[in-house]
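Hi again,

Forgot to attach this to my earlier email, sorry! This is the prediction with adenosine-5'-triphosphate bound. I've pasted everything inline since the attachment limit keeps bouncing my files.
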Amino acid sequence: MAAPALETRDLTVRFGGHVAVDGVSCAFEAGTLTAIVGPNGAGKTTWFNLISGQLPATSGRVLLGGRDISGLPASSRTRLGLGRAFQLTNLFPGLSVRENVRLAVQARAGAGADLLRRWTHRRDLIDEAEDILEQVRLSGRAGTLAAELPDGDQRKLEVALLIALRPRVFMFDEPTAGMSVDEVPTVLSLIQDLRRQGDRAILLVEHKMDVVRSLADRVVVLHNGALVADGPPAEVMESAVVREAYLGLEAALDE
Ligand SMILES: Nc1ncnc2c1ncn2[C@@H]1O[C@H](COP(=O)(O)OP(=O)(O)OP(=O)(O)O)[C@@H](O)[C@H]1O
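Structure tokens for the complex follow:
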């Protein structure tokens, strides 16, 4: 059997006496979208930080496609196919949307640091960038400077840059936080499109239960740093253990 796209084994981090992520073992298969939920301070973002390499683990392992990446820095993990959205540092505010996407495609393709000058020779990469712009519905804004995009479009651009990297694992941490109501569906349908491609695992930290219900195949619940429930959304969100453990979530679950 193929190794899971991503796996954490007994992953733990302590801050002094506080165990923020407590022995979390969990595997994510390609073609699935897993929502990670839990009350504030449950350890969701810290778990993401351990997976992406932003934070070193105290103990435990992270495996990407079966390969142990625990000791690797974040940049190497990205190169190996771990794509975390909204943490990207490769967005150039002074360049247009199109130029940003082209640079990301070119960087992934290893076309060198000669950047925009080479574009005329790489029709395939130009086409790929245009396809991605279309996929994220930013073709109409291709000439706009990244810095001048409204927030929602900037999120879309960040997803575009992530797609350009062709990761096998996509990690989204509250992708619609702070967005206006009319922008939310676009970003959610983008994430749904990614899931439909079938060859990647998608992890989504999300507080909005309606989003979880509509997008996720599976829900993983963290509480006090530990994984306390894992299963199909309807089952997990209705389970007594989750309802009892999460008084704070109860209102949201009933929405
Ligand atoms: N660098 C750090 N140093 C000390 N404590 C930390 C650090 N990072 C996180 N923590 C603590 O670890 C716990 C988990 O925090 P984390 O942000 O991962 O929770 P979360 O589930 O993502 O919460 P939220 O939903 O509010 O984003 C919290 O108690 C937090 O204060």
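The mean pLDDT is 87. The radius of gyration is 19 Å.

That should be everything now.

G.
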